[in-house]
Amino acid sequence: IKEFIVRVVPSIYHIQSETKALQPLFATYSDQLKGVKSWKPPKKVRFFGVIVDLKQFITSNCLGFVLAGLSSHVTSVRQACYLILKQYYDRLSTATFPEVEEIKYLLELLRGSIETPSMKLCTVITVFLSKMAKLLLSPENHMYKSLTTFLMSKPTLEFDRIPGFYRFFNSSELDHHQERQWMLNMILDGLRTYDDFRIYETLYSFKLLQSYYQSLLSDLHSQTIILKIINSVCIDIETITVLYEKHGILTWFLGVILQL
């Protein structure tokens, strides 16, 4: 079973192995993590014990990796990630790169949305945050204007929703095709656990994906991503049962085959 899962969704085991590799780093904060239960850890903490380029911390995906750690099932890992985010945010006050205010806003939005100490976030939320952190450094990106407008319109993040799902998947903008592609890729990257599946199911996202796949508006690339999304759902008997009973997945597969 494990070999099958590794073949279908290798990133799950890749992320887990990377997290284990960082355990010695997290151990550096062991004394400060004791009793840390919220966003506000001790003020004086060495940031990795070295001088870190604050912008490079984002471009090298370090910030994205720390944000991804907020979906860890291990409480101490989440505490370490919240601690690192707090230290990084504090040091942004001395940063001079042009996008510093946007990055601070993203972290403030996350901080204002956390409801419980060491709160565990769903993977789709942390994927969105990780993508946004890097996107904010690329104003030339075709998704920059749409996503920053969406982000600025939210007083808090909704952790029981796919961020911007209806807005970007059903977009009527001139670049709607690119917005839909971006959303499909985020849905694929964010589907890792049953909690993510439940969020998708609540929003009727699978019904929309199935309908879009067979519509005249879809293209080969989008169809490929949708098949990958369905494939990642089909590794668990519980999720397969839901697709079978509520979405007629076998009938849908037959329609897909007849389209070939």
Describe this structure in words.
There is one protein chain. The chain is 64% helix and 0% strand. With 260 residues, it is mostly helical. The protein has two domains: 1-120, no CATH class; 160-260, no CATH class. Helix 1 (2-8) crosses helix 2 (10-21). 27% of the residues are buried.
Low-confidence stretches: 1-46
Q: How large a portion of the residues is in β-strands, by DSSP E?
A: under 5%
Helical residues, percent: 55-70%
Distance between the ends: 30 Å
Number of strands: 0
Radius of gyration computed on alpha carbons: 20 Å
What structural class is derived from the secondary structure elements? mainly alpha
Shape: globular
Largest sheet: none
Counted up, domains total 2
What do the pLDDT scores average to? 82
**If helices are DSSP runs of H or I spanning 4 or more residues, what is the number of helices?**
17
Oligomeric category = single chain
Sketch the topology as an H/E string, one letter per element: HHHHHHHHHHHHHHHHH
SSE layout:
Blueprint: H1 2-8, H2 10-21, H3 23-27, H4 30-33, H5 56-59, H6 62-68, H7 75-91, H8 100-113, H9 123-135, H10 144-152, H11 165-169, H12 176-190, H13 194-202, H14 205-213, H15 220-233, H16 237-247, H17 249-259
Helix pairs in contact: 1-2, 6-9, 9-12, 12-15, 14-15
